[in-house]
Structures are given as structure tokens and as C-alpha cells.
Amino acid sequence: MMDSRTGRKAGRAFLLTAILIVFTLLLVAFPAIVFDFYYDLNDDTLIKDIVSGAYTGTPSGYSVQLLFPLAWLIALLYKVVPGVAWYGLFLCACQFGSVILIAIRLTTLFQTTKGRIMALLAELFLFMGLFLRELVIVQYSVTAGMCMMCAIFLFITSGNSSKKGKNAISLFLVVLAFLIRTKVCLMLMPFLLYAGFFRWGLEEKIFTGANFRKYLLLLGGALLGMLAVFCLDMLAYHGNDWSNFREFFDARTKLYDFYDIPNYEQNKEFYETVGLSRESYALLENYNFALDESIDTWLLKSMAEYQKGQLNNTFGFVSRNSIRDALWLYKDRMLKHLDAADFAVAAAYVIYVLFCLIPAAKNRELWRALRRIVPKIALLLVIRSVLWLYLYMADRVLTRVTMPLLMTELACIISFWLNDMQRLPKTVRQEKKGMTIKTVYLLAVFMLAAAFAVNFMRVSEEYEARAAADKRWYAFMDYCRENATNYYVMDVYSATSYQGASYSEKIFLDVDNSYKNYDYCGGWMAKSPLARKKLADQGFRDMQSALLGRKGAYFVVAPDRDMQWMKAYYAKRGVCIECRRVDEIRTDSNETAFVVYDIWRADNETG
Prior knowledge:
Blueprint: H1 2-34, E1 38-39, H2 42-52, H3 68-80, H4 86-109, H5 113-130, H6 132-136, E2 137-138, H7 140-156, H8 168-180, H9 182-187, H10 189-201, H11 209-236, H12 240-259, H13 268-274, H14 278-285, H15 297-308, E3 312-314, E4 317-319, H16 323-336, H17 340-362, H18 366-394, H19 399-423, H20 426-431, H21 433-482, E5 487-490, E6 497-498, E7 501-502, E8 518-520, H22 529-537, H23 543-548, E9 553-557, H24 564-572, E10 577-586, E11 592-601
Parallel strand pairs: 1-2, 5-8, 5-9
Antiparallel strand pairs: 3-4, 6-7, 9-11, 10-11
Helix pairs in contact: 1-4, 1-5, 4-5, 4-7, 5-21, 7-8, 7-10, 7-19, 8-11, 10-18, 12-15, 14-24, 16-18, 17-18, 17-19, 18-19
């Protein structure tokens, strides 16, 4: 008898393991076979270059964007095994790992094999239907958002068990998200706090010393973990060079990402007081400010402080748009510009409410059900609305920011539904089993249709566009490798995209972490200690003198870019230059991807 029960238990465990293995294979194999994994933007590739050693020749943990403990660990992996795409592998592992952790939790919530299979199918089609692009074209901000989404889902569906360490994975994912992209983690913290209050409210006795200790310990653990890694990051960047650069970086971020650069003609008097000429201002406009050493921390801080006075100030929060403008833009999005993920979130709200109210109405418990779900949904809507208004006020409604918001909100709603199912009396739950499986089945079919009708085609189109851009970017990198004794300075806006498709790199194809003998003439690493080291290793003092010297430094631009701004800039400094077109970088189809210029002193041919 005992052997029979043990055998059945082992058989169920084997079947469950097999189901999860098949789920994982489908989840990873489909995007891997149909598409190649891409870094989304050149921000991601630059982080990869820094930690892999391709930027300076030595793997470094000073990636600025990732917190130092994480970046240092990834850089260490590159030092040990240089030929592996560790950074891309890490991002993919975080994303797919989050989906798999959710799948494991679903298998504990559904007790029958059929229910588990349908739940996993629903999850598979959900991610393929709505977030296929995010799985294939990887962006570190979205990765942080997926870790937070998974942590919140696991926390809400964790049950009231007093088992020690049951929320350890959730805490780890929160700290991991903080390490990957601090701003995204903090943006999603209201959802996490809400999840904590939600679980606390489900306790049989809410106001007990044990519960206070339990939930305050969870909150303290998350805050302590984040504080610890943040302090390690601050300690790593402590020192004159990096401290000064972090101030420069923060001022640059405020100007470009939040405040915007004040118009020169309309604010000419201010620019004259800070000593910024129209020619140097042009470098800020086209992001090539690394060319001018006078554009320093003091100047950017002065510009940020000046622009701050021209913007909206709402209770101390400085923003491009007022609350009224943000409300109008938010309303406009809700009514006119919803995408597939927005529709899915709206549908989830409707399905959840109907799922709660229809059975309650049949049992004449409608008022009780309303009292239970209305505060829960209302508070979630308040949180999401406040966060969206913040983004619209700051004018930062970017896909890499909004997608984590939508993911997390959807995870909350689904978690509510699953939690409600588990809290039903056993007899009622058995009566609703058939309805539950049918509901999951309908969701799976819906997401399957969405996957192939919407997201699959969209990702395919973007993939083709990236392939066309790839030809140009890889032609540039091949050219640099073939001319390894030279050094190339890339015009920033020439290095961003081609016909709307971002220049980036494939994560796992032709991995090459060897030193790259080029750098951007601006961007978020410009004037950092690593950027200066890169120049110094080539024998250059700064970018301006490097281009004027005769040591093999060349300027690279897209064919349609004008060079008059550079002539004007040097002329303002009393140097007359010629921009000599010395070469063209061509693709395999003989299209001109980039043009290479040699910058010469027109008044002194010998330099």
C-alpha cells in the first residue's frame, strides 16, 4: 500500500517535471529558432562592451548603468571565460527565469494535470502574444521590470503559510532588479508595497505582533538588501575622477532626459553669462559634446538649474508637462492609442470583475463581492494612474519604461484572480473547476491569436529592419577591425539607427569581445574615466586634439550628415579646418553606410 502511494507520488512528480521541461523548451526554443536574440539599443551594447573589455581592452565593473556589484561580477566572468556572451546570457536568464518561476508557481496553484497544462499554455501564449519582442530584443530596463513583475506575482500568490524563507526568491528578485536598473525598480515599488499590504490583509488576524514582525521583516529585508548594494556601488565610485563624472552624468541626464536643453536664440543672454558659444551649443544639440572640454559639470549644472526655472514645478517636482497636460495626454492614450498590452490589461480587469461578480450575483452576495473587489481594483488603478501621470509629466513615456508597468499591472490582476480561486471553500472550488479550466483555455486561445496576429508580425518586421541596419553597423565594425592601427570617432546621431531601426548587435552570434578601436563623440560614457583611459591608451589627450593630430584619428558620419557644425566649432577656436573625405564604409551590397573624414588644419598642412 505504501509502495503504491510512493509510486503514484513519484509518477506525479515525474510528470510535473516533464511538463515544466517541455514548457521551458517551448519558451526558449521558439524565439531562439525563429529569431536571434538582440540587444535593443546601443546603450545595451555599450554596457556589454564595458563589462566584456571591448571598450578599453580590460573588463570593467564601472558600467555606470548597472550597480557596481553586479557589473563587477559580470566583468569577472568575462575575465575568466572571455569568449562567452555573459552579459546577454545574464539578461536572458533573468527574463526567461522570471517566466519559468511563474510557471512553477502555477503548477502549485492548479492541482490537476489538465489544469496545470492549460495554465502553462495560457502563460506561454500570454508572453508570446504580448511580450515576444521583449524576450527577443533584450533591454536591461525591461529585464529589471520582469524581475519585479515576477517578485510581485510570487509574493501575492504565496499563500498564508508560515514556512520560513517562502518569500526569499521574491526578495532576491527585488534586489536583483535594483542592481540591474535602479530607476525601474523604484518606479515599480508602489506595486510591491501594495502586494505586501494585500497579503497582510488576507491574514486571519491582521493586527498581531507576529504579523507586524513578519511583514516589517520582509520590507526591511528588501530595503536592507537594496541599501547594501547601493552602498557598495557608492563606495566603488568614490574618488575624485568617478565622483566628478557621476555629477556630470547626473546633470547631463537631467538636461537630456528630463529638462531639455534651453533654446540658444531665446536664451542667448544666459548662454553668454556662462560662456557657451553658439558653436559649442551645436555640440550639445547633436550630442557630440565630448569634442569640447569646456562643456563640463559646472556648465551642465548651470544649464539644468536655469532650465529648471522655466519648467513646471508641482510640489517640488520639476517636469516638462503640467498635471493638466499629463492628464490630457493620459486620457488621449487611454482613448486613442492603446496597444495590444494595454488592451490585455483592460481585458484582465473586465474578466476579473466579471469572474467575481457573476457567481456572487447568482448567490445573492453581490454587495459583499463589491465591497471585496472594488477597493482592491480602485487602489491598483490609482497606483497605475499616478505612475502614468508621472511619466507624462516627465515626458518619459518610452516603451522600455511603459512595458514593465504594464507587465506588473497585468501580473497583479492575474495574481488577484488566482488568489481568489485558492481562497474559495473546497466544495465551491470543485464546482468551479470546470469553469476555471475553460476560462484558462479561452485565455490561451485568445493569447495564441494575439501572438500570431499582432506581435509575431510586428517582431518579424522589426527583425527585418534590424537586419538591414545590421549590414551597415557590422560593416563599420569590420572596417575598424581591418584598420586596427587607426582610431575612429563616431558622430553620435549617425550611430543610433537606420530608417528607424536601432543599431545594435546580436547577443549570441559571432561573439567578439576584442578591443574596439572606436568611440562615440558623446553619449553617457563621454568624459568618464574609462573614456579618458581609452583615449590615453591611443596616445590622445582629448577628442578635440585627437582629431586635429596626425596620429590616425578619423571622424565617421552617416552619408547624409553635414560637417559644417564641426568647421564652425574649430573656427570659433581660431582653427581653420578641412574635412577631407578619405574613405567610405560600404555594405556587401555596395551601399555607402558611413563616410570617413580626416580633419586637417587648413592653415598648417603639416599639423
